[in-house]
Protein backbone atom coordinates (compact mmCIF):
# COMPACT_ATOMS: atom_id res chain seq x y z
CA UNK A 1 0.00 0.00 0.00
CA UNK A 2 1.37 3.39 -1.02
CA UNK A 3 0.47 6.84 0.26
CA UNK A 4 -0.69 9.85 -1.75
CA UNK A 5 0.09 13.44 -0.82
CA UNK A 6 -3.20 15.20 -0.19
CA UNK A 7 -3.99 18.93 0.09
CA UNK A 8 -7.25 19.86 1.80
CA UNK A 9 -9.17 22.97 2.88
CA UNK A 10 -9.74 22.69 6.63
CA UNK A 11 -12.31 24.82 8.46
CA UNK A 12 -10.48 26.17 11.50
CA UNK A 13 -12.74 28.71 13.23
CA UNK A 14 -15.89 30.82 12.84
CA UNK A 15 -15.29 33.93 10.68
CA UNK A 16 -16.21 37.43 11.78
CA UNK A 17 -17.28 39.08 8.54
CA UNK A 18 -15.57 37.70 5.44
CA UNK A 19 -13.55 34.47 5.88
CA UNK A 20 -9.76 34.74 6.07
CA UNK A 21 -6.81 32.33 6.07
CA UNK A 22 -7.35 31.96 9.82
CA UNK A 23 -10.74 30.42 9.09
CA UNK A 24 -9.93 28.29 6.04
CA UNK A 25 -6.46 26.73 5.96
CA UNK A 26 -4.71 24.55 3.39
CA UNK A 27 -3.41 21.43 5.14
CA UNK A 28 -1.15 18.77 3.60
CA UNK A 29 -1.49 15.14 4.71
CA UNK A 30 -1.12 11.58 3.42
CA UNK A 31 -3.92 9.26 2.30
CA UNK A 32 -3.83 5.57 1.37
CA UNK A 33 -3.93 4.81 -2.35
CA UNK A 34 -6.36 1.94 -1.59
CA UNK A 35 -10.07 2.29 -0.96
CA UNK A 36 -11.31 1.52 2.56
CA UNK A 37 -13.03 -1.85 2.94
CA UNK A 38 -16.41 -1.72 1.21
CA UNK A 39 -15.79 1.87 0.15
CA UNK A 40 -14.17 4.11 -2.43
CA UNK A 41 -11.13 6.24 -3.03
CA UNK A 42 -12.10 9.26 -5.12
CA UNK A 43 -9.94 11.74 -6.94
CA UNK A 44 -11.91 14.95 -6.51
CA UNK A 45 -12.31 16.86 -9.78
CA UNK A 46 -14.55 19.84 -8.96
CA UNK A 47 -16.23 21.18 -5.82
CA UNK A 48 -18.94 23.83 -5.80
CA UNK A 49 -18.67 27.15 -3.98
CA UNK A 50 -22.09 28.46 -2.92
CA UNK A 51 -23.19 31.38 -0.72
CA UNK A 52 -24.98 29.11 1.76
CA UNK A 53 -21.61 27.73 2.89
CA UNK A 54 -21.02 31.02 4.72
CA UNK A 55 -24.12 30.36 6.81
CA UNK A 56 -22.70 27.02 7.93
CA UNK A 57 -19.58 28.75 9.25
CA UNK A 58 -21.20 29.74 12.53
CA UNK A 59 -21.35 28.91 16.22
CA UNK A 60 -22.89 25.40 16.39
CA UNK A 61 -25.28 26.59 19.09
CA UNK A 62 -27.05 28.74 16.48
CA UNK A 63 -29.68 26.57 14.85
CA UNK A 64 -30.51 26.80 11.15
CA UNK A 65 -31.75 24.69 8.23
CA UNK A 66 -28.33 23.05 7.81
CA UNK A 67 -25.92 22.09 10.60
CA UNK A 68 -22.89 24.22 11.32
CA UNK A 69 -19.55 22.96 10.04
CA UNK A 70 -17.33 21.34 12.64
CA UNK A 71 -14.01 23.05 13.20
CA UNK A 72 -10.77 21.26 12.30
CA UNK A 73 -12.55 19.18 9.66
CA UNK A 74 -12.27 19.30 5.88
CA UNK A 75 -14.79 21.61 4.22
CA UNK A 76 -17.32 19.84 1.97
CA UNK A 77 -20.10 20.60 -0.51
CA UNK A 78 -21.58 19.35 -3.78
CA UNK A 79 -18.86 17.99 -6.03
CA UNK A 80 -17.85 15.51 -8.70
CA UNK A 81 -14.95 13.09 -8.73
CA UNK A 82 -13.45 9.99 -10.34
CA UNK A 83 -13.23 6.61 -8.62
CA UNK A 84 -9.57 5.55 -8.60
CA UNK A 85 -10.04 2.51 -6.36
CA UNK A 86 -13.15 0.63 -5.29
CA UNK A 87 -13.98 -2.20 -2.95
CA UNK A 88 -17.72 -1.56 -3.38
CA UNK A 89 -19.42 -3.74 -6.01
CA UNK A 90 -21.77 -0.98 -7.19
CA UNK A 91 -18.87 1.27 -8.26
CA UNK A 92 -15.94 0.57 -10.59
CA UNK A 93 -12.60 2.23 -11.10
CA UNK A 94 -13.05 5.10 -13.54
CA UNK A 95 -16.67 5.87 -12.62
CA UNK A 96 -17.54 9.56 -12.39
CA UNK A 97 -19.58 10.24 -9.25
CA UNK A 98 -21.34 13.22 -7.69
CA UNK A 99 -22.18 13.87 -4.07
CA UNK A 100 -23.35 16.52 -1.62
CA UNK A 101 -20.50 15.63 0.75
CA UNK A 102 -17.56 15.95 -1.62
CA UNK A 103 -14.61 17.31 0.32
CA UNK A 104 -12.37 20.20 -0.67
CA UNK A 105 -9.47 17.80 -0.97
CA UNK A 106 -7.46 16.09 -3.69
CA UNK A 107 -8.32 12.52 -2.63
CA UNK A 108 -11.34 11.49 -0.59
CA UNK A 109 -11.66 8.11 1.11
CA UNK A 110 -15.34 7.17 1.35
CA UNK A 111 -16.27 4.46 3.87
CA UNK A 112 -19.04 1.99 3.12
CA UNK A 113 -21.57 3.92 5.20
CA UNK A 114 -20.94 7.01 3.08
CA UNK A 115 -21.77 5.39 -0.25
CA UNK A 116 -25.46 6.37 0.03
CA UNK A 117 -24.43 9.98 -0.61
CA UNK A 118 -22.70 9.16 -3.93
CA UNK A 119 -24.30 8.59 -7.34
CA UNK A 120 -22.83 7.80 -10.74
CA UNK A 121 -22.87 10.54 -13.36
CA UNK A 122 -24.00 8.95 -16.62
CA UNK A 123 -23.71 12.13 -18.75
CA UNK A 124 -25.00 10.79 -22.10
CA UNK A 125 -24.88 14.30 -23.59
CA UNK A 126 -21.24 14.80 -22.59
CA UNK A 127 -21.92 18.04 -20.76
CA UNK A 128 -19.02 19.64 -18.86
CA UNK A 129 -18.85 17.99 -15.44
CA UNK A 130 -19.17 21.39 -13.79
CA UNK A 131 -22.74 21.54 -15.12
CA UNK A 132 -23.66 18.96 -12.46
CA UNK A 133 -22.68 21.52 -9.82
CA UNK A 134 -24.50 24.39 -11.53
CA UNK A 135 -27.14 24.40 -14.20
CA UNK A 136 -27.91 20.67 -13.71
CA UNK A 137 -27.15 20.69 -9.98
CA UNK A 138 -28.41 22.38 -6.83
CA UNK A 139 -28.38 25.96 -8.23
CA UNK A 140 -30.25 24.79 -11.33
CA UNK A 141 -32.95 23.06 -9.30
CA UNK A 142 -33.15 26.14 -7.09
CA UNK A 143 -33.90 28.29 -10.13
CA UNK A 144 -36.28 25.85 -11.80
CA UNK A 145 -38.35 24.89 -8.77
CA UNK A 146 -38.78 28.37 -7.35
CA UNK A 147 -39.47 30.07 -10.68
CA UNK A 148 -42.26 27.68 -11.65
CA UNK A 149 -43.67 26.56 -8.30
CA UNK A 150 -43.45 29.84 -6.38
CA UNK A 151 -43.24 32.43 -9.15
CA UNK A 152 -46.13 30.97 -11.15
CA UNK A 153 -45.03 32.85 -14.28
CA UNK A 154 -47.43 34.02 -16.97
CA UNK A 155 -46.49 35.11 -20.47
CA UNK A 156 -46.19 38.88 -20.75
CA UNK A 157 -45.38 39.48 -17.07
CA UNK A 158 -42.26 41.27 -15.85
CA UNK A 159 -39.67 39.65 -13.59
CA UNK A 160 -36.85 41.40 -11.73
CA UNK A 161 -33.86 39.24 -10.77
CA UNK A 162 -31.15 40.40 -8.35
CA UNK A 163 -27.65 38.91 -8.61
CA UNK A 164 -28.80 38.12 -12.13
CA UNK A 165 -25.46 36.89 -13.47
CA UNK A 166 -24.93 34.39 -10.65
CA UNK A 167 -25.39 30.63 -10.57
CA UNK A 168 -29.15 30.85 -9.95
CA UNK A 169 -30.06 34.25 -11.40
CA UNK A 170 -28.83 33.63 -14.92
CA UNK A 171 -30.86 30.42 -15.23
CA UNK A 172 -33.98 32.11 -13.86
CA UNK A 173 -33.52 34.74 -16.56
CA UNK A 174 -33.20 32.18 -19.32
CA UNK A 175 -36.26 30.27 -18.11
CA UNK A 176 -38.23 33.51 -17.93
CA UNK A 177 -37.29 34.46 -21.50
CA UNK A 178 -38.25 30.95 -22.59
CA UNK A 179 -41.70 31.48 -21.04
CA UNK A 180 -42.23 34.87 -22.70
CA UNK A 181 -41.67 37.21 -19.74
CA UNK A 182 -40.02 40.61 -19.81
CA UNK A 183 -36.76 40.05 -17.93
CA UNK A 184 -34.90 42.72 -15.94
CA UNK A 185 -31.74 42.15 -13.92
CA UNK A 186 -29.52 43.85 -11.35
CA UNK A 187 -25.76 43.10 -11.35
CA UNK A 188 -22.55 44.62 -10.03
CA UNK A 189 -20.48 45.56 -13.10
CA UNK A 190 -20.82 46.99 -16.59
CA UNK A 191 -19.27 43.79 -17.97
CA UNK A 192 -22.10 41.77 -16.45
CA UNK A 193 -24.68 44.24 -17.77
CA UNK A 194 -23.33 43.78 -21.29
CA UNK A 195 -23.22 40.00 -21.01
CA UNK A 196 -26.80 39.67 -19.79
CA UNK A 197 -28.14 41.97 -22.48
CA UNK A 198 -26.04 40.72 -25.41
CA UNK A 199 -25.72 37.00 -24.64
CA UNK A 200 -28.64 36.09 -22.39
CA UNK A 201 -31.03 38.58 -24.03
CA UNK A 202 -32.30 40.25 -20.86
CA UNK A 203 -34.59 43.15 -21.75
CA UNK A 204 -33.07 45.57 -19.23
CA UNK A 205 -30.12 45.36 -16.82
CA UNK A 206 -28.56 47.89 -14.45
CA UNK A 207 -25.34 48.13 -12.47
CA UNK A 208 -26.44 48.58 -8.86
CA UNK A 209 -23.19 50.41 -8.05
CA UNK A 210 -24.20 53.26 -10.35
CA UNK A 211 -27.88 53.86 -9.59
CA UNK A 212 -30.10 53.47 -6.53
CA UNK A 213 -32.66 50.65 -6.50
CA UNK A 214 -35.60 53.08 -6.34
CA UNK A 215 -34.31 55.05 -9.34
CA UNK A 216 -33.46 51.91 -11.29
CA UNK A 217 -36.89 50.35 -10.84
CA UNK A 218 -38.63 53.59 -11.81
CA UNK A 219 -36.45 53.89 -14.92
CA UNK A 220 -36.35 50.28 -16.12
CA UNK A 221 -39.68 48.87 -14.87
CA UNK A 222 -42.32 51.60 -15.18
CA UNK A 223 -45.01 48.97 -15.68
CA UNK A 224 -44.29 47.43 -12.26
CA UNK A 225 -42.88 44.09 -11.11
CA UNK A 226 -44.96 40.92 -11.24
CA UNK A 227 -42.24 38.56 -9.93
CA UNK A 228 -39.20 39.55 -7.90
CA UNK A 229 -36.51 36.89 -7.58
CA UNK A 230 -34.60 38.00 -4.49
CA UNK A 231 -31.03 36.82 -4.05
CA UNK A 232 -29.70 39.82 -2.13
CA UNK A 233 -32.23 41.22 0.37
CA UNK A 234 -31.48 44.63 1.85
CA UNK A 235 -32.14 47.90 0.06
CA UNK A 236 -33.19 46.29 -3.23
CA UNK A 237 -35.83 44.18 -1.50
CA UNK A 238 -37.30 47.31 0.12
CA UNK A 239 -37.36 49.08 -3.25
CA UNK A 240 -38.89 46.07 -4.98
CA UNK A 241 -41.78 46.08 -2.49
CA UNK A 242 -42.60 49.61 -3.64
CA UNK A 243 -42.37 48.59 -7.30
CA UNK A 244 -44.43 45.40 -7.05
CA UNK A 245 -47.77 45.14 -8.82
CA UNK A 246 -50.83 43.95 -6.96
CA UNK A 247 -50.85 40.16 -6.53
CA UNK A 248 -47.14 39.98 -7.33
CA UNK A 249 -44.89 37.16 -6.13
CA UNK A 250 -41.58 37.52 -4.33
CA UNK A 251 -39.31 34.47 -4.41
CA UNK A 252 -37.09 34.73 -1.32
CA UNK A 253 -34.00 32.78 -2.38
CA UNK A 254 -31.21 34.49 -0.41
CA UNK A 255 -29.86 37.68 1.12
CA UNK A 256 -26.20 37.71 0.17
CA UNK A 257 -25.87 41.45 0.85
CA UNK A 258 -26.36 40.71 4.55
CA UNK A 259 -24.39 37.47 5.07
CA UNK A 260 -21.10 39.00 6.21
CA UNK A 261 -22.47 41.68 8.54
CA UNK A 262 -21.69 40.16 11.96
CA UNK A 263 -23.83 42.46 14.11
CA UNK A 264 -27.55 41.90 13.46
CA UNK A 265 -28.26 45.51 14.40
CA UNK A 266 -26.15 46.67 11.45
CA UNK A 267 -28.13 44.66 8.89
CA UNK A 268 -30.59 46.43 6.61
CA UNK A 269 -34.04 46.63 8.15
CA UNK A 270 -37.08 46.40 5.87
CA UNK A 271 -39.62 48.99 7.08
CA UNK A 272 -42.31 48.88 4.39
CA UNK A 273 -43.66 45.35 4.83
CA UNK A 274 -47.23 46.71 5.06
CA UNK A 275 -47.03 46.78 1.26
CA UNK A 276 -47.21 42.98 1.38
CA UNK A 277 -50.71 43.39 2.79
CA UNK A 278 -51.97 46.31 0.71
CA UNK A 279 -50.65 44.87 -2.58
CA UNK A 280 -51.77 41.33 -1.68
CA UNK A 281 -48.29 39.96 -2.38
CA UNK A 282 -47.11 36.40 -2.03
CA UNK A 283 -43.68 36.24 -0.37
CA UNK A 284 -42.28 32.74 -0.03
CA UNK A 285 -38.95 31.37 1.06
CA UNK A 286 -37.79 27.81 0.44
CA UNK A 287 -34.94 25.42 1.15
CA UNK A 288 -33.99 23.47 -1.96
CA UNK A 289 -32.70 20.51 0.06
CA UNK A 290 -36.35 19.89 1.02
CA UNK A 291 -37.18 19.35 -2.64
CA UNK A 292 -34.44 16.75 -3.06
CA UNK A 293 -35.90 14.91 -0.06
CA UNK A 294 -39.64 15.27 -0.73
CA UNK A 295 -40.30 15.93 -4.42
CA UNK A 296 -38.44 13.46 -6.61
CA UNK A 297 -40.90 14.12 -9.44
CA UNK A 298 -39.89 17.78 -9.67
CA UNK A 299 -36.18 16.86 -9.53
CA UNK A 300 -36.62 14.47 -12.48
CA UNK A 301 -38.72 17.03 -14.37
CA UNK A 302 -36.02 19.65 -13.87
CA UNK A 303 -33.18 17.38 -14.99
CA UNK A 304 -35.02 16.31 -18.14
CA UNK A 305 -36.26 19.79 -19.09
CA UNK A 306 -32.99 21.65 -18.58
CA UNK A 307 -30.91 18.87 -20.17
CA UNK A 308 -33.09 19.14 -23.27
CA UNK A 309 -32.72 22.92 -23.40
CA UNK A 310 -28.95 22.63 -23.07
CA UNK A 311 -28.77 19.85 -25.66
CA UNK A 312 -30.86 21.84 -28.12
CA UNK A 313 -28.49 24.79 -27.79
CA UNK A 314 -31.09 27.19 -26.44
CA UNK A 315 -29.28 27.90 -23.18
CA UNK A 316 -25.97 29.57 -22.36
CA UNK A 317 -24.62 29.07 -18.84
CA UNK A 318 -21.75 31.22 -17.59
CA UNK A 319 -19.25 29.53 -15.25
CA UNK A 320 -16.41 30.88 -13.13
CA UNK A 321 -14.01 28.00 -12.43
CA UNK A 322 -11.28 28.62 -9.86
CA UNK A 323 -8.12 26.70 -10.79
CA UNK A 324 -6.48 24.95 -7.84
CA UNK A 325 -7.61 24.00 -4.37
CA UNK A 326 -5.14 26.51 -2.91
CA UNK A 327 -7.29 29.29 -4.40
CA UNK A 328 -10.52 28.20 -2.69
CA UNK A 329 -10.53 31.06 -0.18
CA UNK A 330 -9.99 33.72 -2.86
CA UNK A 331 -12.78 32.23 -4.92
CA UNK A 332 -15.13 32.13 -1.95
CA UNK A 333 -14.46 35.78 -1.05
CA UNK A 334 -15.02 36.78 -4.69
CA UNK A 335 -18.38 34.99 -4.59
CA UNK A 336 -19.44 36.65 -1.34
CA UNK A 337 -18.47 40.13 -2.57
CA UNK A 338 -19.97 39.82 -6.07
CA UNK A 339 -16.64 39.72 -7.91
CA UNK A 340 -17.38 36.35 -9.48
CA UNK A 341 -18.93 36.09 -12.93
CA UNK A 342 -21.15 33.03 -13.22
CA UNK A 343 -21.37 29.77 -11.29
CA UNK A 344 -18.30 29.33 -9.09
CA UNK A 345 -16.59 26.00 -8.61
CA UNK A 346 -13.07 24.93 -7.73
CA UNK A 347 -11.10 22.76 -10.14
CA UNK A 348 -9.15 20.38 -7.92
CA UNK A 349 -7.87 17.82 -10.42
CA UNK A 350 -8.17 16.91 -14.09
Automatic annotation (TrEMBL):
One of its GO terms (molecular function) is oxidoreductase activity, acting on the CH-CH group of donors, NAD or NADP as acceptor. Pfam families: ADH_N_2, ADH_zinc_N. Keywords: Oxidoreductase. It comes from Lipomyces starkeyi NRRL Y-11557. This is Enoyl reductase (ER) domain-containing protein. It comes from the Eukaryota. Residues 20-346 form the Enoyl reductase (ER) domain. InterPro entries: ADH-like_C, ADH_N_2, ER, GroES-like_sf, MDR_fam, NAD(P)-bd_dom_sf. The keyword Oxidoreductase applies.
